Amino acid sequence: MSTGVSRTPIIILNDKSISNLYVKREDMIPYSFGGNKARKAELFFADYDKGGYDYVVTYGTSHSNHCRVIANICAGRDIPCLIVSPNEVSDTTYNSKLTRIFGAEYKCVPVEEVHDTIETELNRLRAEGHNPYFIEGGGHGNIGTDAYVRCYDEICEYESLSGIRFDYIFFASGTGTTQAGLVCGQLIHKDERHIVGISIARKNPRGRQVILDSIISYMDANKYPYSVQDVDDKTVFIDDYTSDGYGADNAEITDTIREALRDYGMPLDSTYTGKAFYGMKEYIKKNNISDKNILFIHTGGTPLFFDDLENRL
After folding, report:
1. Nearest to 41 by CA among 139, 130, 123
2. 177-189 and 206-221 are packed helices; what angle lies between their axes, rounded to 10 degrees?
3. pLDDT digits (tens, 9 = 90+) for 27-82
4. What confidence score (pLDDT) does residue 157 get?
5. What is the pLDDT of residues 170-181, one digit of tens each?
6. What one-character-per-residue DSSP string does 219-282 give?
7. How many domains does the chain have?
8. Residues 6 or more apart whose Cβ sits within 8 Å of residue 262
9. Which residue among 149, 187, 197, 208 is buried most deeply as judged by most CB within 10 Å?
10. Which CATH number is 245's domain given?
11. At what angle do helices 142-162 and 206-221 cross, to 10 degrees?
12. pTM summary value
């Protein structure tokens, strides 16, 4: 499987309040509605192909873009797929409907039982003679991080060809590997710019620490030099705009989604990108940032936009 993820377009928005606002449209990756999870999945399945595996097990909620993409790839390749999911976020969404269409099996348990259930299921499959491949929720881990090191390379290539340099990069920060990959890319390129992750759920200090751990894990595994202080300085994780947590929005986020669709023809969603786009605009206003080139990475979630269209907009 190849998602053809390289060189997703970067476009400028005719924004009323930010004069130099660009968007990298990861949602336009041409596979299963795209998004950062599609970019990561290509690398996970390249790794899958090296190991003689015959089953995929992963984790995610009913809102999960990750689960949708993984289940879609498995369906296309006739690989059985098991998703362990928390009861606490198991409402029906377009992502969960698609995941079931793709034939993935859901096993829903209380969130505190997720870890043990994953281990139990992996052991069961091995006992049945399978060789299961486990993908952490959200595509967490060094492979997921590497996908966004490569994305950072693309951004640098765009800058070199266009003559435009981005002073700030904003995006939705969830499980942390998208942000970890971008910061690792910055460290490897030795660039000076601001990379700002807008948390969609997690709070400091835990949310930020997960990203720091992912950065150090990747840099160590690939033997790149770094200083702990430099990693700390470059990891900006803003938790001011999470609303009431994962999948929760508010009137301001809903208004942001309406405006983005009306003004740019660009779908956002209340779980990830709408929350991050709103947070970015508030952060820029709060910190009096002006006359800077801003890049927002649209990390996908188009099916979730249709949940919002049906239930909120």
Report:
1. 139
2. 50
3. 999 999 999 999 999 999 999 999 999 999 999 999 999 999 999 999 999 999 99
4. 95
5. 999 988 999 999
6. HHHTT----HHHHHHH-EEE-TT-TTSTT---HHHHHHHHHHHHHH-----TTTHHHHHHHHHH
7. 2
8. none
9. 197
10. 3.40.50.1100
11. 80
12. 0.94
Q: Single out the residue in 98, 116, 139 at which a domain terminates.
A: 139
Rounded CA gap, 28 and 24, in Å? 9
- Encoded amino acid at 104, one letter: A
CA distance 204 to 181: 19
- 3-state class of 160 per DSSP? helix
Query: How many other β-carbons are positioned within 10 Å of the β-carbon of residue 259?
Result: 18
Is 261 in contact with 309 (CB distance < 8 Å)?
Answer: no
Q: In terms of domains, do 177 and 270 share one?
A: yes
Element (H, E) at 89: none
Helix H or strand E encompassing 155: helix 142-162
Which single residue is written with the structure tokens 């984790």? 59
Q: How many Å apart are CA 218 and CA 53, to the nearest integer? A: 24
Q: Is 4 part of a structural domain of the chain?
A: no
- 264 and 171 in a common domain: yes
| Residue 50 backbone dihedrals phi, psi, to 5 degrees | -85, -15
Whether residue 298 contacts residue 26, with contact meaning beta carbons closer than 8 Å, is answered with yes
The answer to whether 171 and 204 have CB atoms below 8 angstroms apart is no
Q: Compute the CA torsion angle 225, 179, 144, 65 (nearest 10 deg).
A: 180
Beta bridge partners of 85: 108
Distance CA 76, CA 270 (A): 29
Range of the domain at 125: 38-139
